[in-house]
Amino acid sequence: MNRYVTQENEQRTAKYRKDRQREQAIRDMNAALAPLEIYEPSSIDRPSLFIFGLPRSGTTLAYQLFAHCLDIGYVNNLIARFWLAPLAGIALSREVLGTRAEATFESDYGKTRGPQGPHEFAYFWQHWLGIEDVEDLIRFNQPAPHVDWGKLGRVVRSMQDGFDSGIVFKTMYAANHVREFAATFPMPLFIHVDRDPTAVALSILSARKSYYGTPDTWWATYPPDYSALRNLGFAEQIAGQVAGLRLAYEEAMALLDPEVVVRLSYRDLCAAPELALQKVRTRLRSLYGYDQAFAGRAPPSFEPRERVAGTAADEQALAAALAARGLRG
To answer: Which one of 14, 94, 263, 318 has the lowest number of neighbouring Cβ atoms within 10 Å?
Structure first.
């Protein structure tokens, strides 16, 4: 593991802590397989979808919806163990698990269940983007000469060949390098999921307590101004995290042609999943003339998880910090 991952894992509660021995075994497997990977993609252009948004905003639900209901490739929990050898992972997954599984649309703070559940593939992106510590995570759309974008593009195109389809990722790193992502990957489409800031902040607070047993340990994505937040109390940290990332994501999307950005709200996603699918399909057709096929039917709706601040002292403190920044649902 890199420094950031190792340090963060050590702070987790037993339920969420990764087993270091198993992690090392999988790392050894990746190191052995990586030299065998050959990235010689075809010239066929297929869509590259990138889902991003605030932590706890509904990005995992959107990922599950697109992965299970569109005829498109995605990295599942089995393939994700092959972050240095994704072609081997795709081949093994398709041989053992087949191409589709029944969707459950359940998750635990972004983690899906079962070998075919969609996975963020964080180790893959951290490897290719050279992410070693928090300083690497708070750089947004700055020059990245250390990244071999040409080879990364060939890797993703080869993965698409392995799936014989386009590919959908859920990765917050797309916002950190949005111009390069748009220029590197074929038929790019960026899907931003938005949710009211109070619900997001309260859910982040809950995640901190579940993951680390305390509200005082940082959880999930870092905004560009993290250095100014790191020594504040938990309420000010979370409010600053939400405010900083909202601004960073808006600035990132402003760097793109608006047509390659699809904006979805969590409420609309829950109320009408089919419309979210059609919105993406329509945009792919208008932009690239690509007719994205379905793989399954979407549920009529999802039950939204609404959150409002209760009477608990930590939730009241968080509500006050959000109000101080002008953030309201």
So the answer is: 14
Q: What is the pTM of this model?
A: 0.96
d(CA 320, CA 17) in angstroms, rounded, equals 32
Where residue 316 sits, what CATH number does that domain have?
3.40.50
- Domain limits at 42? 3-324
- Asked, for residue 118, whether it belongs to a domain, the answer is yes
pLDDT tens, N- to C-terminus, the chain (329 residues): 577 788 888 899 989 899 999 999 999 999 999 999 999 999 999 999 999 999 999 999 999 999 999 999 999 999 999 999 999 999 999 999 988 777 788 888 889 989 999 999 999 999 999 999 999 999 999 999 999 999 999 999 999 999 999 999 999 999 999 999 999 999 999 999 999 999 999 999 999 999 999 999 999 999 999 999 999 999 999 999 999 999 999 999 999 999 999 999 999 999 999 999 999 999 999 999 999 999 989 999 999 988 888 889 999 999 999 999 999 75
Neighbours of 244 (CB within 10 A): 21
162 belongs to a structural domain: yes
Q: Which two tokens stand for residue 248?
A: 């960073």
Whether the CB-CB separation of 215 and 237 falls below 8 Å is answered with no
Pair 18, 10: CB distance under 8 Å: no
**What amino acid occupies position 292?**
Q
Report whether 83 contacts 156 (CB < 8 A).
no
Report the domain count for the chain. 1
Asked whether residue 159 is assigned to any structural domain, the reply reads yes
| CA 179 to chain CA mean position, Å | 17
Determine the 3-state secondary structure of 156 from DSSP. Answer: helix
Main-chain dihedrals φ then ψ at residue 161, nearest 5 degrees: -60, -40
Contact 236, 321 (CB under 8 A): yes
Asked if residues 190 and 52 have their Cβ atoms less than 8 Å apart, the reply is yes
The Cα–Cα gap between 62 and 84 comes to: 26
Residue 329 lies in a domain: no
Round the CA-based radius of gyration of the chain to a whole number and report it: 19
